[in-house]
Amino acid sequence: MATHTDPFRQLERLTRHMFGTDGAVTRLATMPMDAYRSGDEFVVSFDLPGVAAESIDLNVERNVLTVRAERPAVPDGQVRWQIAERPRGTLFRQIVLGESLDSDRIQARYDAGTLTVRIPVSTKAQPRKIEINRAEQPQAVSA
Predict the structure, then answer these.
(1) Helices (runs of H) and strands (runs of E) counted in the chain
(2) What is the pLDDT of residue 25?
């Protein structure tokens, strides 16, 4: 049976043990996301399992969408960790929105640990048909 050793994980575990933070580390962490375009809107989904809806802060400023959420840490001394891979504390993610998106009409929904943000494409950026005017045909001049 082959085993995989991650030297950085071992170093992180040793550091946490030496500095007395052998439990869950509270740090600024990112959250996994998916982003895609569906018709006339841009959809971004963030994984936030174990996060209370009240702790999620979503805002947009100057075309930058910011998502911040809190996943509470278990108080030190109450548990003896065996494995602590899930990030705890403040989760954070920023996305720069393109000029073609309408940031005034953003909608968000949190369900089953997933935050889904829908951003409409601006009507100015949507494809449209351009009419082509035809030049008049020159008429033959009789001599």
Answers:
(1) 1, 7
(2) 43
Residue 19 phi/psi, 5-degree rounding, is -95, 10
**51 by DSSP, 3-state: which?**
coil
Task: Please name the residues in contact with 33: beta carbons below 8 A apart, sequence gap of 6 or more.
Answer: 44, 45, 46, 47, 93
Query: Across all residues in the chain, what is the average pLDDT?
Result: 80
The mean pLDDT value for 106-125 works out to: 91
| Residue-wise pLDDT tens digits, 50-71 | 899 999 999 999 889 999 999 8
105: part of which helix (H) or strand (E)? none
User: Residue 20 has what DSSP assignment?
Assistant: T
CA 110 – CA 108 distance, rounded (Å): 7
Report if pTM > 0.70: no
Out of 2.40.128.50, 1.10.357.20, 2.60.40.10, 2.60.40.790, select the CATH number for domain 38-73+86-122. 2.60.40.790
In what helix (H) or strand (E) does residue 115 lie, and over which residues does it extend? strand 114-120
